[in-house]
Amino acid sequence: MVSEHNSLPQDSANGSPAPGSEEQKASVQQRIDQAIHEAARKLEQTAEQFERIGSQGSRASEYSQKVASQLRSGARLLEGTQTESLLDETRTLVRRHPMASLGVAFGVGFVVARLLRR
């Protein structure tokens, strides 16, 4: 009897792809793509909320419309982002500016947590 041999390295403990395997990289990229799509969707929802505020005729109407426009631009940018190019750009920036990267990561994490809490 011939057994089929999987050419991808497997983690013997739980049968999941071994760290560094192509299958694991594809899985991580898929999760990143999903997270980017979700972030873009949340930005779009937030833009709609700002537009409603702006349409109420308040003093902040002009500013809320500008914020909504910027959020929509950010959502479109995220939707058009390729995971591999995003990772390459991120690696380069983190290597050049490690301390600033930590600050930005903290700020982005805080904002994303607030958005996801809604």
From TrEMBL:
Membrane-spanning parts: 99-116
Chain residue ranges for the region called Disordered: 1-35
Polar residues: compositionally biased ranges: 1-15
Keywords (A to Z) from UniProt: Membrane, Transmembrane, Transmembrane helix
Protein name in the entry: DUF883 domain-containing protein
